[in-house]
């Protein structure tokens, strides 16, 4: 009963581990995709919270009103005021690519702030 030991060559060693290496590589790739996805989801929420924290009470009120209008989506508002009153308003929102939404936003902002529609500028929010 003499068993011959098989000689372990680099080729045999690699072929034995080849399947395991592929499985490990797939697991690492899936873990990286999961980490990136989680990071991008939480990063967007932090950015939204930061932009809301920098708005004045008036800007927050206007932004909340605008978000209630059909098609506007998320909105950020900046109001430029001088001693004479409101000079201009900038609105950045998701729905600015729709003409009806732009007209509704312009009318709502002018009415809420008591300014002219001409002083309200509306831009599409980047994705």
Would you write up a description of this structure?
With 127 residues, the chain is α+β, with helices and mostly antiparallel strands. The protein has 2 domains: 7-54; 55-124, ANL, C-terminal domain (GMP Synthetase, Chain A, domain 3, 2-Layer Sandwich). It has 3 helices and 3 strands. The chain has a 3-stranded mixed beta sheet, covered by helices on one side. Helix 3 (99-113) links the parallel strand 2 and strand 3 (120-124). It is rod-shaped.
List keywords for this structure.
127 residues, alpha+beta, GMP Synthetase, Chain A, domain 3, 2 domains, 3 helices, rod-shaped
Describe the secondary-structure layout.
Layout (H helix, E strand, L loop, with lengths): L9 H44 L3 H11 L7 E8 L2 E9 L5 H15 L6 E5 L3
Parallel strand pairs: 2-3
Antiparallel strand pairs: 1-2
